[in-house]
Amino acid sequence: xxxxxxxxxxxxxxxxxxxxxxxxxxxxxxxxxxxxxxxxxxxxxxxxxxxxxxxxxxxxxxxxxxxxxxxxxxxxxxxxxxxxxxxxxxxxxxxxxxxxxxxxxxxxxxxxxxxxxxxxxxxxxxxxxxxxxxxxxxxxxxxxxxxxxxxxxxxxxxxxxxxxxxxxxxxxxxxxxxxxxxxxxxxxxxxxxxxxxxxxxxxxxxxxxxxxxxxxxxxxxxxxxxxxxxxxxxxxxxxxxxxxxxxxxxxxxxxxxxxxxxxxxxxxxxxxxxxxxxxxxxxxxxxxxxxxxxxxxxxxxxxxxxxxxxxxxxxxxxxxxxxxxxxxxxxxxxxxxxxxxxxxxxxxxxxxxxxxxxxxxxxxxxxxxxxxxxxxxxxxxxxxxxxxxxxxxxxxxxxxxxxxxxxxxxxxxxxxxxxxxxxxxxxxxxxxxxxxxx
Length: 438
Description:
This protein is mainly alpha-helical.
């Protein structure tokens, strides 16, 4: 007799999924280093490395728009399974490709990685977690996911140099391929869930359209409509995009700043900073997972806004030339605040109705990828003229200004919220209008 899919069974399977996701994330972070080095080794051009990253970011932007239509047609389990298989397959092609085809295959790997990685994450956040975990356990589920990825980032970046130098590029690619296959196996053990039936109210305008054409045209407007009708939620997604732009600033500025601190060993500061940042993120997740139910209400829109302010401020201070002890503490705070904002943001979008949630996560992924990509271009140019502190201060300063406006809007709506709504202005009813209000 098959095992009943009880709440405890679902949580156990979710833990297995997170383990598989963390392992594939480790492979991805390892490959961030290995692939960039390999692109330069194959092409001998720094411009090719930039183009490689640009292709991946552009693919991620497109994937955010494609995620909702894909998940409306196929189950999240099927989508997540096949994106892992596809990523493993393109790496196998890269390993087997002759020298004359290495460069074009590398760019295919970049595009596929951008698309599949984005679609996987949208499916995980918008479909799997709400379906697998009870609503009162979503804080724990989101936090566990972020913890796994943070550990994977540290392990991937820390071991990349060792793997590549001792075992070579082929071994790194095969290792990454194996992690995607393991993740696919972890996805395969998820229970099969039926896709929700179309909402008659949502599909009614499409009936007059030519067969299927109207439905395709309404995918993007569905996301835009929910955000346009929900001021706090729309500003929240915008702030997430600006935060991504801020992230591009400190990612690009860290190597420059680290070189200024120690020309003989520039990697030291970068390595220490990211390890401490990840430790702070993991500590924050451990605290979040142990919060009492009442305290979890802070992990919504307000927690996201306040966390963004603290995180952006910490990143600015990290480039202020403070003593090592102070900088380490600042990195710890930045990691903890970053962990808080991600869980708060993800959990808040998960309160949307099923049909709107996937669109919102897909559009959010596009906005984040665009913000990071545009930021990398602008920041790269700015660092040739201005100091790392100035560049990071401007980028994260914009995020702080928008976050302050966002927090003010949330507090104003809380103070004017009528009876029958929760602390963030959302109705306590079950209708889509009530849940999407904020």
